[in-house]
């Protein structure tokens, strides 16, 4: 492994500010010991962001005018909604469904190198993840026929490490009356005797959502190739008062205080999202409990509920049935109304089978999110080998459906994330890419103490930047910070002008998937707001408004949230770039932002990485380490070979 080191002195110098428009400065002598930063292109470039601001403003206005002219796209109904599940595609902003003139090479670049995706066609929710006889199994919502949602079956793949994958034949297809309109989402439970119980939602021949039981035909098959659907399915039907299309996505089961097994199912009453709980002793007969595990008025239908314990001070994950002192329970639900995954920490009472949030203001659907952009229908499982809880999430496309049909595939799974209780805040979870992804790290380059003056951009000459693992730490000049009386008290990532909007203490961070001329760039950044009482808020945001020149086809919004950066913490981020996906994690995984990015210029060898500071009033110092990432090995399992 090759590691380079550079310092701010290597990158910045007196000629830091270039004239507009952006034009890299001519090359300079490279200080002894510095990396070969200038070999591929000019070395020391630091330009004002004024141009960036103007260009952004123009494109920002253009995007918003488009929305105003044509009406918000979400008013139009797309795939899934009529069938009783949430919208499955990005509908575009214009409503005109214009398609950019993509070249084959542009579309080919969008396919990822180390994220799980099927060989072709449509995928959505992760289903029934589990570990069995040496293999991690992933099932997923899959359309074998097309790159759009429909004809939903269970795709199946196995992996030794959740990074390199082998595709297996379809696990379950819609072939019985109780799932004829789709083998929808479900979860696995491994019983103490090793039996595997799979509960899933079937959309029946009459479009009623029911819960079905399936189990492996041969438990001693490590690949779990064949699945038997229980003959007398369904095992749960919509109870009285519950709509036939508001009853879906059973969780992994857990053992209650009486020794019986429980399962939770998401539902809706009026506009209140709720979780129903059933109990069973034999996995074929289920009895509905009176009342609900929990519900939150006004949040709409809860899809893909997940319910699991976390250890308050532990470093390990917990089996789903664990409860007692030192344990909190996470309740997560996917909001059908806004298609975001919300979670809350709280107390599970095993005697009443109810759950109460620690903070009612941070309740499910109104408080914290697992991720602040494109991340939905997520599901955890307990990895009994490494004693950790692992989270998968469905990453949908942020381009229009006709583009997906052109490229022949749609959607990814996130890099699996470990889930831990954040002991420092006590209110957050920490989500972090599984350690196995680090096995793909190859050449690394490190830049220490890079000074980012207000209005500067610093190119990081690391070669092509389409597959990266980046770890960055920022330090804001403390004297200026302390002296500042007030700055942007009411900041909000989504309603801000994005990375082009200049404040006293932000934005600063990274530009990923940018080209040399900055015609396309995706900023992922911090923004600090300071109140008159001396308190700070740190925001972690990403700005898609200039991520692609294909403006009519792709999502161009600005996303993000507050992330607690505690007194002894500097703003830190980790970013995984893998072609059309960028996964960002700040403060050790307290806040995550996953975006889909579709550049037309910043692709292949033209994709670049920059540091920037667009604050007006503060110097920022950055230390950053960047690894190139190898591709994962993802191909069909050689079933015909011995
Ligand atoms: N996807 C499945 C449903 C679930 C939805 C259908 C969430 O079971 O509610 O493909 O994306």
UniProtKB/TrEMBL annotation:
Keywords linked to the UniProt accession: Glycosidase, Hydrolase, Vacuole, Zymogen
Bilayer-crossing regions: none
Ranges where the Glycosyl hydrolase family 32 N-terminal domain occurs: 115-433
PANTHER family linked: BETA-FRUCTOFURANOSIDASE, INSOLUBLE ISOENZYME CWINV1-RELATED (PTHR31953)
SUPFAM superfamilies: Arabinanase/levansucrase/invertase, Concanavalin A-like lectins/glucanases
Segments forming domain Beta-fructofuranosidase N-terminal: 22-107
SMART domains: Glyco_32
One Pfam family cited in the UniProt record for this chain: INV_N
Keyword Hydrolase included in the entry's annotation: yes
A GO term from the CC aspect: vacuolar lumen
Subcellular location(s) of the protein: Vacuole lumen
Enzyme class: hydrolase
GO BP of this protein: carbohydrate metabolic process
GO molecular function: beta-fructofuranosidase activity
EC code: 3.2.1.26
Family label: Belongs to the glycosyl hydrolase 32 family.
Gene3D superfamilies linked to this entry: Exo-inulinase, domain 1, Glycosyl hydrolase domain, family 43
Main location: other
Protein name: beta-fructofuranosidase
Pathway per the UniProt entry: Glycan biosynthesis; sucrose metabolism
Record-annotated Glycosyl hydrolase family 32 C-terminal domain positions: 436-628
